[in-house]
Amino acid sequence: MNPLVVVTGGSKGIGRAIANRFITEGFDAVVCARSVENVEGPGLLPFAADLSTREGVNSLLQYIHSLQRPVDVLVNNTGVFQPGQIHNEAEGTFEQLMSTNVASAYHLTRGLVGDMIARRRGHIFMMCSTASITAYTNGGSYCISKFALLGMSRVLREELKPHDVKVTAILPGATLTASWEGTDLPEDRFLKADDVADSAWAAYALSKSAVIEEILIRPQLGDI
Description:
oxidoreductase; 7 strands; alpha/beta; Rossmann fold; about 40% helix
C-alpha cells in the first residue's frame, strides 16, 4: 500500500504542486479544497470541504479515518488572503482569516497527530509565509494569522520532538499562482509552485534523525 499524504488547499497552486510531487515519489494524496471538480488522476483522492468551519474539518477527518490508512504526511496549506489594515479592514476579516489560516490547521492536526504519535512516525508541514516574519502595512489580519501559524508550528515542533514526529514550517515569498493572475510583473520575479513542492519533498526525504524546522524561500530578486 502506498504511503498517504493529506494536502489541504490542494486543488491548485502550491498545494496541488506538493500533492503531485509526493505522488511522483509513490504516495497517494488526499486533496481537500472547497471545490475539487478538476482534481483527478492516479494517486489523487479528492475531497470537498470548507475548512474555515469546524464542520468542514470534521468531515475531512471522517473521510480520512474511513480510508483506514495511516497518514504519513500532513500539509496544512489551506489559506486565504485579504489585503487591508487593522484599523480599516472590513468587519469579520480577522475572524475569517484566523479560522481559515490557523484554526483549520489546529483542528486538523489534533485530529491526525494522535496516530502519528502512536506509530512514532509522521511529518507535518505548515504553509506559513514571509508574512509570518515580516509585517507590512497592507497585511492586516493576514499577517496576524501567518505569524500565529508560525508560532503554532514552533510549539508543535517542541511538543512532538520526543515522539519522533517532524514539524516543518515553510515560508514562501511571492509565488506565481492564480492569486497573481493579471499581474504585469515578469515570471522571474516569482517563485514557482514546484519550487515550494521540491523544498517540501527535500525536507521529508531526510533521514529519521534530522529535521528541517523552517524553510524560508524567496524569489531570487527579493520580495515583491
